[in-house]
Structures are given as C-alpha cells and as structure tokens.
Design a protein that fits this description.
Layout: E1 2-4, E2 7-9, H1 15-28, E3 39-40, E4 43-48, E5 51-55, H2 57-66, H3 95-111, H4 117-124
Antiparallel strand pairs: 1-2, 3-4, 4-5
Length: 131
C-alpha cells in the first residue's frame, strides 16, 4: 500500500487480500475507489502481463522543457566518478534556477531514476554557487 496525503494505491499478488484491505479501510475512513490506476503522483503505471512498470517519462520531459534542456543530445552512459568538474565560463545560471533543477532531479531520482543518484549528489554540492 502506498499512501501520500489523500492518494492511496493498494496492490498485491492476491486480489482477495487487496479486496479485504479495501473493505477494512472503507469501514474506517471515507474513501472513493477510483479503480485501476494509470498514474499516481506523476508516476505512470504500465501493466505488461504479470509485470508492473513505473515510468516518469512524462514528468522528465516536462522538467526538460521547463528548464529548456529538452533538445539537448541524450547520452546513454552513467556518470564517470573520476571526471573532474570545471568552473563554468560559458552561459551562467542563477542560483535559484540551479536549486530548482537539482530539486527536480532529486524528486525524479527518489521515485524511479536511481542511476542518476551519484551525478545529482555531486552537482548538488554547488547549489550555493552553481558556476
């Protein structure tokens, strides 16, 4: 069961247990069953056979467009921990916008995009002075 403020997602491998859980909660709280979910908290739920996939593709695209990085070339490599960061001498970015970008990446990372954890943690060190 996932619960966030007033959104709840109940899932399990046995429909009988899921149904009993819903009945119990409905006896204690006012609830509205919205049926099977497609999206919860910006995370798209995709059913494929016996598997459930979680995707934040739409949320990621939205953030890339918001910060004007949507048309940058994508790479399919992880961050090289040996690489050295250099002082930014090109286009500057405000501290507040940099903090918004880092916060957005932390949000994505905490839900489903774990492979960006190291890069985001390295970049978050420079939130006070993004250059």
């Amino acid at each position: 069961m996932c619960l966030y403020v007033d959104d709840m997602l109940i899932f399990g491998s046995c429909i009988d247990i899921v149904s009993k859980t819903k009945l119990f909660l409905e006896s204690k709280f006012e609830m509205k069953d919205m049926g099977e979910t497609n999206v919860i908290l910006g995370v798209k739920v995709i059913r494929k056979g016996d598997s459930i996939l979680l995707s934040q593709e739409q949320q990621t695209e939205k953030l890339l467009r918001k910060f004007r990085y949507y048309y940058f070339k994508l790479v399919n490599t992880s961050y090289d921990a040996k690489s050295k960061l250099k002082k930014n001498r090109e286009k500057s970015i405000s501290q507040s916008q940099y903090a918004q970008i880092i916060g957005s990446l932390l949000h994505l990372m905490s839900f489903s995009i774990l492979d960006i954890s190291y890069a985001v943690s390295r970049l978050s060190r420079y939130t006070q002075c993004p250059s």
